[in-house]
């Protein structure tokens, strides 16, 4: 954990993610302000997120919650991110994921952030956290794009 946090404090990603850390809360959470400039609908947005680490990290996954508004099939309305690698290790009680797709202590802060960037670029509407966003993604792409664009504009106004 210490190595990952030192790495994170020095990290600058080519995709525009730049974590801002408060050393007083290193072991509990990481505040990341991320100008996500990847080729997707959210390009140019500045989305705040909090990554919280459980006491038994790395045996259990951190949680990530956007504090900025994000319209996405894999982000709950409260901002919590829903991706397989952040689900507890072991078998999925709902049968949607293989154990190999879920959390493993080999994941790093970097691999988590890269997975979130990938998720934002390629939504999984098969098992959505936000059913309404998933339905729009599938059935009304123009309306989905409008809502994402609104989130991007709001995020830019907050900077």
TrEMBL record:
InterPro entries: Ub_conjugating_enzyme (IPR050113), UBC (IPR000608), UBQ-conjugating_AS (IPR023313), UBQ-conjugating_enzyme/RWD (IPR016135)
Gene3D superfamilies: Ubiquitin Conjugating Enzyme (3.10.110.10)
Keyword Oxidoreductase carried by entry: no
GO molecular function, one term: ATP binding
Coiled-coil ranges from the UniProt annotation: none
UniProtKB keywords: ATP-binding, Nucleotide-binding, Transferase, Ubl conjugation pathway
Name by which UniProt lists this protein: Ubiquitin-conjugating enzyme E2 7 isoform X2
Species, as recorded: Nicotiana tabacum (Common tobacco)
Gene giving rise to this polypeptide: LOC107784606
């Amino acid at each position: 954990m210490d190595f990952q946090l030192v790495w994170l404090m020095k990290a600058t990603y080519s995709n525009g993610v730049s974590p801002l850390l408060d050393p007083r809360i290193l072991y509990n959470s990481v505040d990341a302000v991320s100008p996500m400039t990847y080729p997707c609908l959210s390009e140019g947005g500045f989305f705040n997120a909090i990554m919280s680490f459980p006491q038994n990290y790395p045996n259990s996954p951190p949680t990530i919650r956007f504090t900025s508004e994000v319209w996405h099939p894999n982000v709950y309305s409260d901002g919590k991110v829903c991706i397989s690698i952040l689900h507890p290790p072991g078998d999925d009680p709902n049968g949607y994921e293989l154990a190999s797709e879920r959390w493993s202590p080999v994941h790093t802060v970097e691999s988590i952030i890269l997975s979130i960037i990938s998720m934002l670029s390629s939504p999984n509407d098969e098992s959505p956290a936000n059913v309404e966003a998933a339905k729009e993604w599938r059935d009304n792409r123009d309306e989905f794009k409008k809502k994402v664009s609104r989130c991007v504009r709001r995020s830019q106004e907050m900077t």
